[in-house]
Amino acid sequence: LLTVTVFLSTLTPKFYFALTVTSSFISGLIFVFEWWHFRKYGTSFIEQVSVSHLRPLIGGAENSPPPPAAFSAGDNDTSRQNMPECKVWRNPLNLFRGAEYSRYMWVTGKEPLTYYDMNLSAQDHQNFFTCDTDALRPSDTVMQKAWRERNPQARIKAAYQALELNNDCATAYVLLAEEEATTIVDAEKYFKQALKAGEMIYRKSQNCHSQSPQHEAQLRRDTNVLVYVKRRLAMCARKLGRIREAVKMMRDLMKEFPLLSMLNIHENLLEALLELQAYADVQAVLAKYDDISLPKSAAICYTAALLKARAVSERFSPETASKRGLSTAEINAVEAIHRAVEFNPHVPKYLLEMKSLVLPPEHILKRGDSEAVAYAFFHLQHWKRIEGALNLLHCTWEGTFRMIPYPLEKGHLFYPYPSCTETADRELLPTFHEVSVYPQKELPFFIHFTAGLCSFSAMLALLTHQFPELMVILAKA
Questions:
Q1: Is 291 a domain residue?
Q2: In which band, very low, low, confident or very high, does the pLDDT at 97 lie, cut at 50, 70 and 90?
Q3: Residue 295 belongs to a domain
Q4: Are residues 293 and 258 in the same domain?
Q5: What does residue 89 show for φ and ψ, rounded to 5 degrees?
Q6: Member of which family (predicted)?
Q7: How many CB atoms lie within 10 A of CB 72?
Q8: Given a cut of 50, is residue 76 above it in pLDDT?
């Protein structure tokens, strides 16, 4: 102790200045390296080394499940290159304008739909419900103009004009069901009238569709109208509590028009079957529509994860799992959750109610916040119904962020996460909704620590240079 005291008393201010400058320089180099490693790999180098090498030496064990390999899409480079980044899709479960969206606006005073979203719907209506032969039927000519109208009242007025010209104008009833009806019951009445008129027109088109290309286009349009009406009738039945009737209507529709799978009617079916708790039927639908390498939607991925979580969630305990390790069924459930989270990382915060929901838009962006809102809006109740499912999701979903490759240009299970989702979601979702942006990985602790250490030692070096005698006194004290 005496020797140390003598040694410290002989140190000059220059020594302390050199010491603080050197420590500042070294900690700065560590900080720069940590930051570079995080930007490239998404993890802290110090944390990674400590977990991988030091923890086993001091008796710790890493119980996190191995990275899932069963769903690897490494052999699908061609599919990845051809995958469109930010294509906007029609929401299979979109609400009714008059009976749901308008009621929300009346109560809250907030507009739930953006102009961009409604403009996309107007384009859809023109593509689905019009064709080149509309000029031959005055009512269809009026409806062709109605779909282009921006003012809702003008559209409704045009629909009534079309019905005055032709009382069997199916598209006029569709417009009234969507926009004038203020309840689902009223909407269903209009759709039933549209179904009666649509079936009659469809049969006529079938009889003469081979006569000319114009008649084929008319058959295509009449088919679109009939499918749309039947689907919305099934959704009305679902909303009014007639679940089994809705399931039957959806199954019949999928059998009658199997080529219209791009309309994603199976997502309506999945949601209705989950409401019935017919999990075996849900699994059968998933087996048909769940593409392993390139799944079609968050509904597919998260429903698959829900079914696997259901098998283990009731008895799952993080403490028990950390002691004995994960069972095969638990690993499968965790891998399914990781797969779902990588496909759409926005969903868990809505399911865990860490972020508030809004009414889903009429169009969604696959893997975006808009798809997450649309999925959670309808499926949150199904996760709550299964005991322990949300607990399992809460315990495991954040681990996915350590496994998903970083930066964005890379992908693990799927094609790389699109970089344009934020822009598209801001156009689809209302302004009062805080758009979820991903990926935004939080900075690891050691980056904050090395940055603080570098700043502190640099400050000490500056103070030692400016006030050498005072700093030497403080150091000796």
A1: yes
A2: very high
A3: yes
A4: no
A5: -115, 150
A6: Belongs to the ST7 family.
A7: 14
A8: no
pTM (2 decimals)? 0.74
Whether the CB-CB separation of 236 and 188 falls below 8 Å is answered with yes
Tokens of 141: 């000519």
Asked whether residue 251 falls in the same domain as residue 367, the answer is no
Within a domain: 64: no
Whole-angstrom Cα distance, residue 420 to residue 183?
37
Measured distance CA(267)–CA(13) in Å, rounded? 74
Q: Are 200 and 316 in a shared domain?
A: no
Mean pLDDT of 52-78: 42
Candidate from 79-88, 266-275, 315-324 with smallest mean pLDDT: 79-88
Q: CB of 297 within 8 A of CB of 87?
A: no
> Domain of 389?
286-440
Residue 231 sits in the same domain as residue 380: no
User: Which position has the token pair 């969507």?
Assistant: 178
Q: Does 348 or 28 have the greater pLDDT score? A: 348
Rounded CA-CA distance 74/258 in Å is 30
Confidence of residue 443 (pLDDT cuts 50, 70, 90): low
User: What is the rounded average pLDDT for all residues in the chain?
Assistant: 81
Direct distance between the N- and C-terminal alpha carbons of the chain, in angstroms, rounded to an integer: 14
> 295 and 253 in one domain?
no
* Residue 107 and residue 255 in one domain: yes
In a shared domain, residues 222 and 104: yes
Among 125, 171, 184, 186, residue whose Cα is nearest residue 150: 125
| All residues at 6 or more sequence positions from 345 whose CB lies less than 8 Å from its CB, including other chains | 400, 401, 404, 417, 438, 439
Beta bridge partner(s), residue 88: 365
**In 96-231, which ranges are E strands?**
none
Structure confidence by residue, pLDDT tens digits, 156-178: 999 999 999 988 889 999 999 99
Q: Work out how many domains the chain is built from and give that number.
A: 2
Of the candidates 234, 202, 199, the one whose C-alpha atom is nearest the C-alpha of residue 220 is 202
Q: Give per-residue burial for 126-158: e unless 16+ CB within 10 Å, then b.
A: eebbbbeebeebebbebbbebbebeebeebbeb
Highest mean pLDDT among 112-116, 387-391, 416-420: 112-116
Residue 445 lies in a domain: no
Q: In whole angstroms, what is the distance from residue 452 CA to residue 458 CA? A: 10
Which tens digits make up the pLDDT trace of 180-232? Answer: 999 999 999 999 999 999 888 888 877 775 666 777 888 888 888 999 999 99
Residues 105 and 191 grouped into a single domain: yes
- Residue 57, pLDDT score: 53
